[in-house]
Structure formats: structure tokens, C-alpha cells
Amino acid sequence: MMPLSALNETRPLLAHHPIGASTGFMADERGDWPALVDAAAELSPFTAELAALSELELPGLLAYLLSAGDELPAFRYLSVHAPSKGLKLAEPKLVDSLQRLPATVDAIVVHPDVIDDPGEYRRLGARLVIENMDTRKGAGRTADELAPLLAELPDAGLCLDVAHARDVDASMDGAHALLDRFADRLRHLHVSSLDDAGHHVPLTVEDEAAFGPVLRRCRDVPWILEAPLSA
Amino acid sequence: MSGDGAASALQRLAAHGGDGFPHLIAARERTDAGLAALRARFAAARAIGGEAALPAGAWAGGALPADAAVVLFGSWGRGELTQGSDDDWLLLVDGPPRDGLDAAVAAVAGVLGGERAGPGPQGSFGTAAFGRDLVEHIGLEDDDNRNLTQRMLLMLESVPVVGDDVHRAVWQQILDRYLSESRTDRRPPRFFLNDVMRYWRTIAVDFAGKHRETDAKWGLRNAKLRTSRKMLFAGGLVPILRCHALKHADAAAFLARQLALPATDRVADAFLAAGQHDAGVRCLGAYDRWTGMLGDPAVRDELSALDRETASASPTFREVRRLAAELQNGLLALLFETPLAPAFREYAIF
After folding, report:
1. Is residue A15 part of a domain?
2. Which chain A residue lies closest to B322 (C-alpha atoms)?
3. With bands split at pLDDT 50, 70 and 90, how would you rate the model's confidence at B64?
4. Contacts of residue A17 in chain B, CB cutoff 8 Å?
5. 0.90 surpassed by pTM
6. Helices B277-294 and B297-305 meet at what angle, rounded to 10?
7. For tag attachment on chain A, is the N or C end more exposed, with fewer CB atoms within 10 Å?
8. In a domain? residue B140
9. Is the pLDDT reported for residue A142 higher than 90?
10. What is the residue range of B37's domain?
């Protein structure tokens, strides 16, 4: 994939700053955090999301970040996607690990269905960012469904996954409703398309057009691509 | 295009957000009340000849000249007064430099009293300044750091408590001087733009200079550089760039209207004009929360005690840094992803 800053000419909607990549789609390097970070920084030195989607990946990421020091690229905005799969740890232990993420991590993305006790996650303070879910999940999909959780986590922000929002409401009214309700808490976006199984896939032209009005309301926050862009 | 009307631009933007901007709105009310109290105090001091609280004879006999104004700067000028705000002030004289103002300067210091911290040791404030220096010495050797600072803050964040007409007259002379170099429609006044950008870079370079030898108060100064100083800069930069949409004949009146507003109103107005309500809510919302933090004495004390080595371990400093990033991201979106972008690209770099 070409560096993201070169996309302006062919995909004007994506002429946004900062825009970066999630390591979640970099399957070949999975587990090799220096290589993943290097690949993310090559795409954009400004922002990235380090995805420890399986709980098994979190210790390695934590160890890497705690020891990287000056070797970690100076991203302007760095998020970590907390585990949403393979959860074995008791909730307080998982939050302990997330809390140990160094100050270089600006945001910790958590799926709402992972949270049993919001009080535990309150420890993450303003670094906690809650992501809206797709139709595979039974909750956390809409503004109304997220409102009670965000009320219990007053310092937490919102990560708007635009593909999830379209999956829930193809008209994108649901995405607008999320922004209407939580505009002042938006921290960053996840941008991609979804396949029929709900997996993140490269942004399609159709989705790019459908996302346009929503993306234009989010010009000031980092956008994280959860799948590579097609040429 | 201006923020004229019953509701300020900040209030109109607040209507698009969940919480409004409670700290900024409260700070404006606090500033207005403080200014009213100071004006009353100056009026009383002049009425009684200064005998009650002023140095003997300081006020009596017309120690405050008719061609002088007492002008406050910083958070007073931005309408962001908090409990820990300083009193940075000048005795502004509409004319050439002259001697014999020591008594008047002492009288002003006496009336302002010691409720708040006075001007800093750099010498830019707490003294007399002369309109002719500010108007005629723009650039070259006579435009030293003090002159540049006084001129920029007069234009971008000042408010008079005595001598409104004098303040306005000097302010207008400086604006006229900046605009005298501009004669073209739909082009921002470059002379003014370059001076505002020079001032911002000077602040940033001077911050590094101040802390080359000591890290005293590094945390608080760094936090202000990321927030309040950035708002000051944006509050000048944005209205000047918006002149790219105006006829030359309209630019002066537009800038006069805009610069009479607090910086947060100028920025809020630009977000509204660009249709970027959500980004504006986040940008000013972050600044609102910073204003709330700054009003907490414990936060100020903690930030003041931090140096560059200890700052990153402080949750308070990290929160400031996060809010500052939201503020900056909003301003960058306003400058680069709205109709302001072509003007910024064309005029702001070279």
C-alpha cells in the first residue's frame, strides 16, 4: 500500500490529516510489534492504531511499548485497540494491563460488549474510547444503545466506526445520530468497508460516497484505516 | 461574517454541542464583572484625588494624562479571567515617547493593587507605552521584543479600563498602518499577516530561550503555549485570512469588527462560517475544559511545579496535552479542510 499522504489526487475525500493505519490488517507481521509499528509509520508517521484484538497479543504489545523508548515513532496520535477476542483474564486484570500502557498511547479503543463493570474501565480516564458496534453484536450499535454506557464513563470518548454505522443503518442516519449526540466526545474514526461476514475490507467506492457527509463532519479527528486501500 | 448580534459566536456554536462551553462563558462573565469593578475603582480613585489608596499626590493634579489609557492584556483581553490570572497592563499614551509619567504609572499600579499577580519581570508591561512607537516601529531594529509584544497584544487581546477613546485611537492607527500596504481585493493584508505569524514564532522561540537555563514553571508555560497562546495566534490569523473573500474596501471594517471580539468568538465565528459546527464544538470544547483546569489553583500549582522531565508522568499534564491536541486538530481542520485552505496555502507559508 502506498503512503497515505499520496492519496489526495485519486481519492479527494481521503485528503485528510491525520490519517493512518491500523495494524489489525497487517496479518503477515502479526505478533512482530517492531515490524508492525514500522509498517504503520511507513504508511503515516502521524497516527496509527496498534491492534491487540486477541488477548494473547496484549502482553507482547505492552512489553514492546514499555521498552521501545525513543525507537517508537513520534506519532502525533497513537491508539491501541484493546482485545475483543479470546478474553480469558478477569476484567480487573485486563484493565490493569491496559492501564499500564505508557503515556505515548493517547487512546485505548474498547468494544462496549467487552465491558461488564464500567467502574473498572473508569480507571483508564480520558484515554478510554468506546467504539460503536455492527449488527453482529446485540448492543452498543446506536446512539441510544451507547448512551447509558457513555453516561457511566464521563471521561471516555467515542471512536466512530463508519462501516459499523452503515451496517446498522445503510442510510447513515444512525451515524449522524451518533455525531449529533456525542459530537463533543468524538476522538477518532475507523474507516473501511465490511464484507458479508462483517470483516473489514478495503473501502469501496460506494461506501466512500455514502460515508462522505459523515466524514465531512469529522475533519478534525484522526482517521484510522482498518483495511488497506485499494489502488 | 462578523459575530455581531444578540448571541456571541461562541454562544451560537455552543448551541451545537452537548454541554456548551460553561468554563468560557463563566470566565467571560467573571471578566466583565472584574472590568466593571476596576472601572469603578479607577473612577473613585480619580474622584477622590487618590488620597485614600494611592501614593501621595500621585493621582491629584491630573497625574493620568488626557492622552493616556489604562489597558489590560492577556486573559483580561481574551475574556478568560480565572482565579490565577495576572494583571498585565500598560499606560498607553497616544503620542510620541516622553518623560514625566512615573507618577501616573505608579498611580495605575496602586489602583490595580495586589489582588492578582502583577506584570512579569520581562518589562513589557506595568509601564508606559507610546502609540508612535507601536505604529511606526513595525520591523527593523527599533521593533524589539517588547515593542512587538505590546503591539501584538494590543491588537489581539487588549481591553481598556480607562481611556477607551485613546485605546481605540492607537489600535486604529496600528490597523491603518498594517492595511496601508494592502490595496488589492480578495487578498489578506500580508503586512499584518506576516507580523502575526512572526509574533507566534517569536513566542515559541522565546519559550525555548527562557527554558534553556532553567525549567522553572516549565509545565505551566508549556501548557499555555499549547493552548492560550495558540488561541491568541489563531484569533489573529483566522480573521486576517478570511479577508481573502472580501473586497479591499470591506477588509478594514471586517477586521475592526472581528478584532474587537474575544479570540474565542473570532475562531467560533470562522467555524460557523465554514459550516464545521462539529469540529468547532470539539475545538472550543477542548479549550473550554482547559480554561476550567486553569481556574483550579491546584492544577496551576501542579503544572507550575513540573519540568520537562517530570511532565509526562503527570496525569494533569497529559490531560492538558490531550486537550491541546484537540484544540490544534480543530484549528488545523479549519485552516486546511475548509474554504480557508487555499488562502492559507497561498499566503501563510511564503
Report:
1. no
2. A106
3. confident
4. 332, 336-337
5. yes
6. 80
7. C
8. yes
9. yes
10. 9-347
